[in-house]
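During the no-cost extension, the postdoctoral fellow (Dr. R.K.) reprocessed legacy sequence entries with the updated structure-token encoder. One reprocessed record is reproduced below for audit purposes.
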Amino acid sequence: MKLVLDGKEISAENAEALRRIILTDRDVIALKIDGNLKDIYAQLTDGMTAETVTVKSPEGLDILWHTSAHIMAQALMHLYPGVKLTIGPSIENGFYYDIDMEHKITEEEFGQIEEEFRNIVSQKIQLTREEIKRTEAIEIYRKENNEYKVEILSEIADDTVTIYRQGDFFDLCRGPHLPDTSFPKSFKVMSVAGAYWRGSEKNKMLQRVYGISFPSKKEMDDYLAFYREALERDHRKIGKELDLFTISPEVGPGLIIWKPRAAYTKMRIEDLWKKEHLENGYELLSTPHVARSHLWTISGHFDFYRDNLYPEMEFPEGDKYLVKPMNCPFHILVFKEKLRSYRELPIRYAELGTVYRYEKSGVLHGLLRVRGFTQDDAHIFCVRDDLETEVKKLLDFNLFFLKKFGFSDFKVYLATMPEKAVGTKEEWDRAEAALTAAVKSYGMDFTIDRGGGAFYGPKIDVKIKDALKREWQTTTIQFDFNEPERFDLSYINEKGDKERPIMIHRALLGSIERFFGVLLEHYKGDLPLWLSYKEAVVLPVSDNTSDYAQKVCGELLKKGIRAYVDGRNERLGYKVRDARLQKIPYFIVVGENEEKAGLIKPNGRKEGEMAAMTMDAFLDVINRRRAGE
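Re-encoded structure tokens follow.
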């Protein structure tokens, strides 16, 4: 039997000869053998199917960053004798290594770390993979007084583990890695931050050194330009500049206080959400923030999500309660309150329900990862024959909503049945077919995540791309074969028999908090007019026109334009600049000439300076822009 390499059948002997040629190709850095990533030196035998992996492919770049983490760790060991290494994975944009040492790395030291990194790269040190006894590895790290690696090794069940060596450095790692250290031609230390060992506040605080590397300087320059723009769009920076939200230490991390400007935008989002749901056949629910712990035992959340639940509250009468991590059990209870007929289905319940999950402090991130958030939840209960129709309606509704907020670039992922799953194969096949048909009906490209579904059902994830082409998770359409069983749900079918309904979880935006953060970064804080707290600010040229400014503002408010007067005792130029910084869509300067003519002179962030006009004409400008967004 022949070996297949990059789609061509060759003998294993010829493959070894070909590999020697491949090693001279600076683009190829690894192999994918029978679907698994391997080092380029991995053994090739007859019957295998292998593909070459280039450094510019997503998988190749991940390997480049993984090896770069090892190179950076080696550089840190050279510069800081006695440093203890813990873990150093590749991440979405680069890599990091968590280290333990007394000395605190400062930004001034980044240059010398980069210089030592380049020194290791220039030596073109080969990386070699070794298998050693787990007990031997534990002994090695005990001698180095590295309790972190010992702890990791003590939790591994296998008798043997793999390490990778590069010169005077080695690290516990599964791999795969680059053939040698010469591939990352451009490297930069991005930052240093504190990180608890294993993300637990109970453990020691370590130093997390972040880095990024690329095969060429041009790729690094392109990335740094992107990175600088991403920093400018960081919703936390924009939130502070525009005074949108706060996370108070008195309240607790991960819990958001919405300030007036952001609270207005939140209201606009929620008002649209409710209106569209009511017009699309949903019934709105409002459920408690707490419930007896027993409810979460029935649903399975108490067991499945124990690490992310807030502690139980015990009351004098003996009852135990949990703050809710999910809305679905409440919706299920409403469905179950009475016997349902197939004629009533589908039933669609929707709720903007605030839920609470105790995320580890190390993963909290502004509005994007919080402990309390408003989930835009819906649960659909339907019969099997309605599956495909219902999923198409869901996808149609979801895409309408995302487009309403200005997103047009989507990527869809379809996660299928994992090895361990509840429900029958027939149910899974039917659900997966419905999801597939719905996506295909739109002609959308989608990626199948085989085996990536939750144990209780397959799902569709829709990710949006923002102005920087970054992907953000928003919509989820998730089948659930588990909770209908746990709650013993049923309806009466056409034959008069009890039958289990199909249950679909659905979130459009994911959470209001996270979606608002995405909106801020996508629009760089300059939100569409309909989401803006104020549409216009009136600026009197002097005290002489203050009364006219108030009159203009009053007229604009009567016409439904959200306006206010900036009557501060500041220079006009200062107030104009402040209006621009606050991203007010329009500022209207009124002086004596405007007052005499009974006109206003608007200036739009998008349109620039406009001619003097009546307030009715300005209302037309506003309405045209509202309609066009």
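The first helix runs from residue 12 to 22. The two ends are 61 Å apart (CA to CA). The remaining legacy entries will be reprocessed before the final report is submitted.
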